Amino acid sequence: MEAFNSKDMALKAQKKILSQMANKSVVQMFIDDTSSEILDELYRVSKEYSGNRSEAQKVVKDLIKVVVKIAVLFRHNRFSDEELKLAQNFQKKLRQGAMTAISFHEVDFTFDKAVMSEILKESRDMLLKLVNTHLTTKSHGRINHVFNHYADHELLTQLYNPAGPLKPHLTKICNGLNKLLENGTL
Questions:
Q1: Record's GO cellular component, any one (predicted)?
Q2: Of 28, 33, 47, 186, which one's alpha carbon is 20 to 30 angstroms from that of 180?
Protein backbone atom coordinates (compact mmCIF):
# COMPACT_ATOMS: atom_id res chain seq x y z
CA MET A 1 0.00 0.00 0.00
CA GLU A 2 1.24 3.45 -0.90
CA ALA A 3 2.05 5.80 1.98
CA PHE A 4 0.07 9.03 2.09
CA ASN A 5 1.96 12.19 2.95
CA SER A 6 -0.16 15.32 3.41
CA LYS A 7 2.90 17.58 3.25
CA ASP A 8 3.83 16.27 -0.21
CA MET A 9 0.21 16.54 -1.32
CA ALA A 10 0.03 20.17 -0.12
CA LEU A 11 3.26 21.01 -1.94
CA LYS A 12 1.97 19.48 -5.19
CA ALA A 13 -1.31 21.37 -4.85
CA GLN A 14 0.50 24.62 -4.14
CA LYS A 15 2.78 24.24 -7.18
CA LYS A 16 -0.21 23.37 -9.38
CA ILE A 17 -2.35 26.25 -8.17
CA LEU A 18 0.46 28.79 -8.44
CA SER A 19 1.37 27.64 -11.95
CA GLN A 20 -2.25 28.23 -12.97
CA MET A 21 -2.17 31.75 -11.52
CA ALA A 22 0.99 33.23 -13.05
CA ASN A 23 -0.27 36.80 -12.95
CA LYS A 24 0.86 40.05 -11.37
CA SER A 25 -0.64 39.44 -7.91
CA VAL A 26 1.05 36.04 -7.57
CA VAL A 27 4.28 37.40 -8.98
CA GLN A 28 4.34 40.11 -6.32
CA MET A 29 4.29 37.41 -3.60
CA PHE A 30 7.56 35.96 -4.91
CA ILE A 31 9.17 38.67 -7.03
CA ASP A 32 10.15 42.20 -5.96
CA ASP A 33 9.27 45.37 -7.88
CA THR A 34 12.66 45.68 -9.60
CA SER A 35 12.51 42.09 -10.83
CA SER A 36 8.95 42.69 -12.01
CA GLU A 37 10.11 45.73 -14.01
CA ILE A 38 12.86 43.61 -15.59
CA LEU A 39 10.26 40.98 -16.52
CA ASP A 40 8.13 43.69 -18.14
CA GLU A 41 11.10 44.82 -20.22
CA LEU A 42 11.94 41.23 -21.19
CA TYR A 43 8.34 40.90 -22.39
CA ARG A 44 8.68 44.06 -24.48
CA VAL A 45 11.97 42.82 -25.96
CA SER A 46 10.39 39.49 -26.88
CA LYS A 47 7.30 41.14 -28.32
CA GLU A 48 9.26 43.61 -30.46
CA TYR A 49 11.78 40.99 -31.56
CA SER A 50 9.29 38.28 -32.49
CA GLY A 51 6.44 40.53 -33.51
CA ASN A 52 4.24 37.99 -31.76
CA ARG A 53 2.43 39.17 -28.64
CA SER A 54 1.22 35.72 -27.59
CA GLU A 55 4.70 34.18 -27.93
CA ALA A 56 6.19 37.00 -25.82
CA GLN A 57 3.51 36.44 -23.18
CA LYS A 58 4.17 32.70 -23.20
CA VAL A 59 7.93 33.15 -22.68
CA VAL A 60 7.48 35.50 -19.74
CA LYS A 61 4.65 33.43 -18.27
CA ASP A 62 6.87 30.33 -18.48
CA LEU A 63 9.63 32.27 -16.71
CA ILE A 64 7.26 33.37 -13.96
CA LYS A 65 5.90 29.85 -13.47
CA VAL A 66 9.42 28.45 -13.09
CA VAL A 67 10.46 31.17 -10.63
CA VAL A 68 7.33 30.65 -8.54
CA LYS A 69 7.73 26.86 -8.46
CA ILE A 70 11.38 27.11 -7.43
CA ALA A 71 10.45 29.61 -4.72
CA VAL A 72 7.85 27.16 -3.39
CA LEU A 73 10.43 24.37 -3.37
CA PHE A 74 12.86 26.58 -1.41
CA ARG A 75 10.17 27.64 1.05
CA HIS A 76 9.39 24.00 1.74
CA ASN A 77 13.07 23.03 2.09
CA ARG A 78 12.83 20.46 -0.70
CA PHE A 79 16.41 20.74 -1.89
CA SER A 80 19.15 18.44 -0.55
CA ASP A 81 22.52 19.82 0.57
CA GLU A 82 24.02 18.88 -2.80
CA GLU A 83 21.17 20.64 -4.61
CA LEU A 84 21.59 23.72 -2.42
CA LYS A 85 25.26 23.88 -3.49
CA LEU A 86 24.11 23.64 -7.10
CA ALA A 87 21.59 26.43 -6.40
CA GLN A 88 24.43 28.61 -5.08
CA ASN A 89 26.44 27.91 -8.22
CA PHE A 90 23.39 28.75 -10.32
CA GLN A 91 23.03 32.03 -8.44
CA LYS A 92 26.72 32.82 -9.07
CA LYS A 93 26.20 32.08 -12.77
CA LEU A 94 23.17 34.41 -12.86
CA ARG A 95 25.21 37.09 -11.12
CA GLN A 96 28.01 36.61 -13.68
CA GLY A 97 25.44 36.85 -16.47
CA ALA A 98 23.99 40.05 -15.04
CA MET A 99 27.42 41.67 -14.67
CA THR A 100 28.37 40.57 -18.20
CA ALA A 101 25.11 41.95 -19.63
CA ILE A 102 25.68 45.27 -17.86
CA SER A 103 29.32 45.44 -18.97
CA PHE A 104 28.39 44.72 -22.59
CA HIS A 105 25.79 47.47 -22.37
CA GLU A 106 28.01 50.08 -20.72
CA VAL A 107 31.23 49.54 -22.70
CA ASP A 108 30.81 50.15 -26.41
CA PHE A 109 31.94 47.50 -28.88
CA THR A 110 32.47 44.78 -26.23
CA PHE A 111 29.29 42.79 -26.89
CA ASP A 112 29.94 39.15 -27.79
CA LYS A 113 26.78 37.18 -28.56
CA ALA A 114 28.59 33.84 -28.16
CA VAL A 115 29.67 34.71 -24.59
CA MET A 116 26.22 35.93 -23.54
CA SER A 117 24.50 32.97 -25.17
CA GLU A 118 26.88 30.51 -23.51
CA ILE A 119 26.26 31.99 -20.05
CA LEU A 120 22.51 31.63 -20.59
CA LYS A 121 22.86 28.04 -21.81
CA GLU A 122 25.10 27.10 -18.86
CA SER A 123 22.55 28.70 -16.51
CA ARG A 124 19.76 26.69 -18.18
CA ASP A 125 21.68 23.44 -17.76
CA MET A 126 22.42 24.15 -14.08
CA LEU A 127 18.77 24.98 -13.41
CA LEU A 128 17.57 21.84 -15.18
CA LYS A 129 19.94 19.77 -13.04
CA LEU A 130 18.71 21.53 -9.88
CA VAL A 131 15.03 20.86 -10.52
CA ASN A 132 15.46 17.51 -12.27
CA THR A 133 13.69 15.43 -9.62
CA HIS A 134 11.37 18.17 -8.35
CA LEU A 135 9.56 19.47 -11.42
CA THR A 136 7.73 17.80 -14.26
CA THR A 137 8.87 17.36 -17.83
CA LYS A 138 6.50 20.17 -18.75
CA SER A 139 8.34 22.52 -16.37
CA HIS A 140 11.67 21.38 -17.83
CA GLY A 141 10.25 22.34 -21.23
CA ARG A 142 9.37 25.79 -19.87
CA ILE A 143 12.94 26.26 -18.64
CA ASN A 144 14.30 25.27 -22.06
CA HIS A 145 11.80 27.55 -23.79
CA VAL A 146 12.79 30.61 -21.74
CA PHE A 147 16.55 30.16 -21.85
CA ASN A 148 16.66 29.13 -25.51
CA HIS A 149 14.55 32.14 -26.44
CA TYR A 150 16.79 34.67 -24.69
CA ALA A 151 20.04 32.89 -25.73
CA ASP A 152 19.11 33.26 -29.41
CA HIS A 153 22.05 34.93 -31.20
CA GLU A 154 19.85 37.09 -33.42
CA LEU A 155 17.77 38.35 -30.48
CA LEU A 156 20.95 39.19 -28.55
CA THR A 157 22.44 40.94 -31.58
CA GLN A 158 19.33 43.11 -31.99
CA LEU A 159 19.14 43.77 -28.25
CA TYR A 160 22.73 45.03 -28.12
CA ASN A 161 22.56 47.00 -31.39
CA PRO A 162 23.51 50.55 -30.27
CA ALA A 163 21.17 52.11 -32.85
CA GLY A 164 18.48 49.43 -32.59
CA PRO A 165 14.91 49.79 -31.37
CA LEU A 166 15.53 47.45 -28.42
CA LYS A 167 18.25 49.64 -26.89
CA PRO A 168 15.88 51.51 -24.49
CA HIS A 169 14.65 48.16 -23.13
CA LEU A 170 18.24 46.97 -22.64
CA THR A 171 19.01 50.14 -20.71
CA LYS A 172 16.05 49.56 -18.37
CA ILE A 173 16.95 45.87 -17.96
CA CYS A 174 20.56 46.75 -17.09
CA ASN A 175 19.44 49.48 -14.67
CA GLY A 176 17.24 46.92 -12.94
CA LEU A 177 20.04 44.35 -12.85
CA ASN A 178 22.34 46.98 -11.34
CA LYS A 179 19.77 47.62 -8.58
CA LEU A 180 19.49 43.89 -7.86
CA LEU A 181 23.28 43.55 -7.71
CA GLU A 182 23.69 46.60 -5.47
CA ASN A 183 21.04 45.53 -2.95
CA GLY A 184 22.30 41.93 -2.85
CA THR A 185 19.15 40.36 -4.33
CA LEU A 186 21.15 38.85 -7.17
A1: cytoplasm
A2: 47
